[in-house]
Amino acid sequence: MPAPIRLRELIRTIRTARTQAEEREMIQKESAAIRSSFREEDNTYRCRNVAKLLYMHMLGYPAHFGQLECLKLIASQKFTDKRIGYLGAMLLLDERQDVHLLMTNCIKNDLNHSTQYVQGLALCTLGCMGSSEMCRDLAGEVEKLLKTSNSYLRKKAALCAVHVIRKVPELMEMFLPATKNLLSEKNHGVLHTSVVLLTEMCERSPDMLSHFRKLVPQLVRILKNLIMSGYSPEHDVSGISDPFLQVRILRLLRILGKGDDDSSEAMNDILAQVATNTETSKNVGNAILYETVLTIMDIKSESGLRVLAINILGRFLLNNDKNIRYVALTSLLKTVQTDHNAVQRHRSTIVDCLKDLDVSIKRRAMELSFALVNGNNIRGMMKELLYFLDSCDPEFKADCASGIFLAAEKYAPSKRWHIDTIMRVLTTAGSYVRDDCVPNLIQLITNSVEMHAYTVQRLYKALLDDISQQPFVQVSSWCIGEYGDLLVSGQCEEEDPIQVTEDEVLDVLEGLLASNLSSPVTRGYALTAVMKLSTRLSSVNRIKKVVSIYGSSIDVELQQRAVEYNALFKKYDHMRCALLERMPIMEKAAANGPTETVQTNGEAEPAGLEPKHPPTIIQPANQANDLLDLLGGNDVVPVISTAPAMKPASAGGELLDLLGGLSLSAPTPAPPIPMSQPPFLLDGLSSQPLFNDIATGIPPMTAYNKNGLKIDFTFERSNTNPNIAIITIHAANSTEAEMTNFVFQAAVPKTFQLQLLSPSSSIIPALNQGPVTQVIKVLNPQKQQLRMRIKLTYNHKGSPVQDLAEVNNFPPQSWQ
User: Fold this and answer.
1) Among 38, 194, 214, 529, which is least packed, fewest CB within 10 Å?
2) What percent of the chain has pLDDT over 90?
3) What average pLDDT score do residues 28-33 get?
4) How far is it, in rounded angstroms, from Cα 106 to Cα 119?
5) What are phi and psi of 561, to 5 degrees?
6) For the GAE domain, which residue ranges apply (predicted)?
């Protein structure tokens, strides 16, 4: 059989191919030749054939049939064969193929080889694709090489140890003795890989983190030497001394200093030195400065140092590189809650980024701008953001409009400004706003009694110019129907009144009913507005005709409204004025539903102040865990209405899903509760305050922190009953998108009684712009340690999210 062509010739041949089909033909022909050679067990050219196969694999063609040949090359005694064999194993094998386990013995032999380069090949392969089984078998050899005096092997062994720890974290302690002298190593490669190994160990184990905190002074000394004298000129990049090692050390310092006062104090000076002495004209310097900023923000650094870090990010915003500006905006967004005033100094630069052509930068700048809004700058910031809303791409309008609504509701300097701002958003981006903006604005207008004439006049004038924005048209229709008499009478004092006749008002509403731009919902608003005007204007006959026309509409909703309104004119005309009178001022709590609900293990129901009979509770057959019996037995007199019974628990003691297995049948009433013990937490209240200020000494706690949702508990005591703990939850959202339909549910063991009041909102604003609060009342008559199981459900970025968690670390003061 003739000798196969060399790799160089194959590359040259493939490059001459003019089409993809021609290249495929060449590859298939060569693959067939290689297969034939493998079948004939040709040892002479196996190395050459595997090398060509790897090149084909890099081009994207199948090469799996060469896996066993790689193992044969690894078993060879020739270094050139081993080199190609190990390279092939790293490219063609991974832990999903069982073939890789056949390498374990070869790698073990090569780790003990007399030649350092063969040992290096074995270390590289194990560190690249070693499975957990291989790592367990070979960790001892890696640890042995980590202690060797050969720096070439030590640096490779350190990186291999990182892979072993990632695959089998319980083997971490095996490498602890070998790490003692790693940082005192003079060899640059060993020092660099040692820092990587220490970082991995600290990230994965709190015990290791505490153990290595004593190395902070040594790391500070190494970093100082790097800045002052450099390691060696060969590791400098663009005049910056060894930036890769600097970044690695800064990252390790950040992990070691987080949450530790002594370590943070030890590194404050060197961080200030790095921040002030690093050259910013090159991208290398910016990388070091960015890592320095992250370290300063994560550790317990001095306030002056944090201001310096934010000023560095402010300088990044002026950089021509888009990536650096994006990184700066993202970092400022993370720090704005803790260092608000320092970030405020760069407000003008941040607002300028709203005009950037890059959509990612614009989005980050928009989010940061909303985070900077407060009562002092609301007018200026809203002016800029409204200008941005006018000119931004459609993909930004929904988020921008939502952010303006939230900011205006929170910081509005006056009701007129608030109404004008919301109207401006609706006329600019009405098609992109959330569904709840229409009822919210209607409620705002209703409650601003002195602004009714001004608002209806402004909306009427805007409606003459544009009827394409449906939410705006709906609000305008509602206001014209409600306050049409004020519009016709021209009683506006805030601006020059306009002269409007009754016919002109009805013409506008009839135009909305007939317009192709109007949605069915908008037509419903317009028809109701026309009907309301029958009690406010004198043109009743015309209104009757308009209403009767739509009695035969093909839109069922519109038809039903018209038929009912016609009945009002005929059969119930004596009730029409009372039914259509002006809406009273709306209370926000009343508009959002009951002011108080009792949470019964995941099912909320309205809770009045009257005593309720508890449902009969069926005792579970096996009580393997207290938390399974969330409600307790019949011998306990409930203080709060509780949930229906749960099905019997299994003997395994597994925690039951909060809602799983609940009987949804109607509970059977039990005998009345003796009134000597108040059956409801709010019963028996006198003029005393509900919460005890003395209990403010109970420390708060974080009950849940995951996926950007953080839930903190604060505690108070009830003055009426010392056995009742008042827990207030604060749910904050640090992500970029708001969380909607948020529901918090809780359950406690049978010896406790629990009551949930209604939350302040079902929407958690993005970027920590305001928490949602909810009050929990827990009765603990036996003073037992409090345990709780919570269930969270919400929608985030269009997807439903559900999670369960246990809270067992309540402070003793909360239940003793």
Assistant:
1) 214
2) 29
3) 90
4) 11
5) -60, -45
6) 696-811
Residue identified by tokens 């007399």 is: 114
pLDDT at position 563 is: 93
Name which of 472, 413, 479, 412 is nearest 445 in CA terms: 479
* Of residues 262, 288, 263, 264, the one with CA closest to residue 276: 288
Q: What percent of the chain has pLDDT over 70?
A: 85
- Tell which residue, 188, 274, 202, has the closest CA to residue 232: 188
Q: Which two tokens stand for residue 62?
A: 């199948």
Instruction: Please check whether residue 548 is in contact with residue 562, taking contact to mean a CB–CB distance below 8 angstroms.
Output: yes
Summarize pLDDT for 340-351 with one digit per residue, the tens: 888 888 989 999
In the block, tokens 């199948």 appear at 62
Distance CA 783, CA 780 (A): 5
Residue with tokens 């090149």: 55
CA 301/CA 307 separation, integer angstroms: 10
Phi-psi region of 794 (alpha: psi -120 to 50; beta: other; left: phi over 0): beta
Q: Left, alpha or beta for 469 (phi > 0: left; psi -120 to 50: alpha)?
A: beta
Q: Note the pLDDT of residue 793.
A: 92
pTM exceeds 0.90 for this model? no
Amino acid at 547: V
Round to whole Å and give the CA distance between 75 and 113. 12
The two three-digit tokens of residue 251, written as one number: 């990252």
Q: Which of 60-74, 558-572, 644-658, 699-713 has the lowest mean pLDDT?
A: 644-658
Range from 42-51, 111-120, 299-308, 439-448 that averages highest in pLDDT: 111-120
Instruction: Please give the Cα distance from 240 to 279 (Å, whole number).
Output: 8
pLDDT category of residue 381 using cuts at 50, 70 and 90: very high
Helix or strand (DSSP H, E) at 478? helix 470-489
3-state secondary structure of 497: coil
For residue 724, the cross-strand partners are: 779
Whether 623 and 683 have beta carbons less than 8 Å apart is answered as no
Residue 702, strand partner residues = 712
> Which of 451, 460, 546, 442 has its CA nearest to residue 501?
460
Amino acid (1-letter code) at residue 738: E
Distance between CA atoms of residues 423 and 421, nearest Å = 5
Rounded to a whole number of angstroms, the CA Rg of the chain reads 36
Beta bridge partners of residue 74, listed in sequence order:
none
CA distances from 214 to 162, 185, 301, 588 (A): 21, 17, 18, 56
Helix (H, G, I), strand (E, B) or coil at 615: strand
Tokens of 400: 């921008």
